From TrEMBL, chains A, B:
Keyword DNA repair (UniProt): no
GO molecular function, one term: DNA-binding transcription factor activity
Highest rank taxon of the organism: Bacteria
Name of protein: LacI family transcriptional regulator
Pfam families (alphabetical): LacI, Peripla_BP_3
Keywords noted in UniProt: DNA-binding, Transcription, Transcription regulation
Residue ranges constituting the HTH lacI-type domain according to the UniProt record: 2-56
Natural source organism: Tumebacillus flagellatus
Coiled-coil annotated spans: none
Keyword tRNA-binding: no
Length: 340, 340
DNA sequence: ACCACGCCGGAAAGCGGTTTACAGCCATGT
DNA sequence: ACATGGCTGTAAACCGCTTTCCGGCGTGGT
């Protein structure tokens, strides 16, 4: 391995001078600067990140805790999109992304804060991490710059970003009502993630606002999975005809897709028999014609990244709480309700 | 920050002893061992990865170059699945994953090898990286343990893994022929990625084997994107009726989905009018009823991870070249051809 | 001619661990 | 009584880079 000492020797200067040149400090004469640069190139020198990190306490690395609520990992199609733009923004500023493995080693020190400190990351991104994680509070307390998505984790240097979930839910309900629906059911999640909670809130507020009929049986749980959505829809379809909703608001597209499958299996057509509206606008949604509320995923990634950069670069920065607007995407699973 | 010196002081031992305890070396008495462990717990000590990495030349990190041929980044739905199992296996062994940002900084030293060395990664995973990348050879030469997926990058410590693309293509062709098709077109990629190339090979070999008719016009390019598949299909549909294929083998599901869209836009039904078979079995495929050749993605992730671990742990290990079998998934976009 | 000052560049002390060489101690064998 | 040897544990060098403190040198002012 080539070190700055090798370069120093060849250039007849001290390692300190090499370091100065490499970091663009001003107090080096043009002549030495050029000589050092030339030799650096010739030798194909590559600074060692660990050594630099040790000396500067800066790793140019963002730690990412990425977890799917269900199948923890890289599969959830919605979070990918956020991640992509996040990565691009961070990359543009010179940061690489470190994904912490979620398999815990036996006996390994665990907890978010511990792992972040261990790797000396400059900032942390929490993506798809459930609020129920026991060590969340340690992270907040550790004072490491941190941005979460869809998780209201707030601390001295920790902010978060959510879509306007309640507003989006109300957009969905507005549209259903506009299309003539009044008996509207809800498929949400039992664990009350922040988005799940807020979407339920929007549902309930809309019920009151439009003075819609309500039944306890219309609130079902799909826990954001396709299978869950299927089960929930089956329950709704099993209701006696006069209690059956004419439309269902699903708090997530995967659940909506499950619900659509359940309908087809029952010989019904989504839209014609019961209308379905989803939330997220995952990439599939387009292919199955799902009407849904879109989250602006690229925007979310970009803004999260910029907020985190701010938090890292300016310690006095007060932690941001950001809300991103949603958008109604009309496809074919919501049809006008013909009042019988 | 708490260091081993702090612990050493509190335990009245030397830092060396603390290090021994922490790393499970045998030559420490039971009594001191327990004392040190207790204090470590009490103080919530977390070792510093950079310092350790500097001293041991081992980072417990796998560098990942992850690039979509088209939209470089996290969006390609197929690679996700591989990544997930890869991450899980690696996590189980104590490795975290470092994703190199692909945005290159102006003036930054670039090249795969340089970045891998810079971050001192123990191994490298190449995922979705095109063969055309200029600095690929430097990586191979650097002697860093490396596994690639769908990229035939071979070196003293670099192996790769591919699906049996040629075999899979032949599976697809077998099935089409079995379903009565003889005029079969191909949608592939212009840039000749390894999978694209091998699938074309399988197509051509099948043509000969079954003595099928062939036309230059039946080989089209979609470059693995949905839009590309759409364009290619449009070209095929524009052929005079007697030249139009009855089935199309698409070298990737995204292209197949694009092709299906093109058909629908032309007022045709995939399967009934022209049969379509894809390759990959991405998650969407199920929802749109696409008949396709499945790659065993989980298997690919696991095997890639295990191979890389071997390469890392045993320097004398000769680099593996792995092939994973494929599987025909029958859905609805291939229908029996009624020979007129 | 002398002093002060500004500009360059060097020496050396970290950063937080690991590891090698070695020293102290106690029990054992002769 | 003394050499031998096995256990423990210590001192100190080292990994590669940053950064502070400081000294030397050349220049301009007086």
């Amino acid at each position: 391995m080539i070190t700055i000492y090798d370069i120093a020797k060849r250039a007849n200067v001290s390692p300190a001078t090499v370091s100065r040149v490499l970091n663009g400090y001003p107090d080096v004469s043009q002549k030495t600067r050029e000589k050092v640069q030339r030799i650096t190139e010739e030798l194909g020198f590559q600074p060692n990140a660990a050594a630099r990190g040790l000396a500067t306490k800066r790793s140019w690395t963002i730690g990412v805790f990425f977890q799917d609520h269900v199948n923890s990992g890289f599969k959830h199609p919605f979070l990918q999109d956020i991640l992509k733009t996040f990565k691009d923004v961070m990359g543009g500023k010179g940061y690489d992304l470190l994904f912490f493995a979620n398999h815990t080693l036996e006996g390994a020190q665990d907890g978010f804060a511990a792992r972040a400190r261990h790797r000396n990351v400059d900032g942390v991104l929490m993506l798809g991490v459930p609020r129920t994680e026991p060590t969340l509070n340690t992270l907040v307390g550790a004072g490491i710059p941190c941005m979460s998505v869809d998780l209201d984790l707030l601390g001295p240097r920790a902010g978060y970003l959510c879509s306007d979930n309640k507003g989006g839910a109300m957009q969905a309900m507005d549209y259903l009502v506009e299309m003539g629906h009044r008996r509207i059911a809800f498929i949400g999640d039992r664990y009350s993630t922040k988005p799940g909670h807020d979407r339920l809130l929007g549902y309930q507020e809309s019920l009151q606002r439009f003075k819609l009929p309500f039944s306890q049986k219309w609130i079902t749980y799909g826990d954001f999975t396709e299978e869950g959505g299927m089960e929930a829809m089956k329950q709704l379809l099993a209701l006696p005809m006069e209690e059956r909703p004419t439309a269902v608001f699903c708090a997530g597209d995967m659940m909506a897709i499950g619900a659509m499958t359940a309908m087809r299996e029952a010989g019904l057509t989504p839209g014609d028999d019961v209308s379905i509206i989803g939330f997220d606008d995952i990439a599939y949604a387009k292919y199955v014609g799902l009407t849904t509320i879109a989250q602006q995923k690229e925007e979310m990634g970009t803004q999260t990244a910029n907020a985190l950069l701010q938090l890292i670069e300016d310690p006095s920065q007060s932690p941001p709480v950001l809300t991103i607007g949603t958008e109604l995407i009309v496809r074919s699973t919501v049809q006008r309700n013909v009042v019988g």
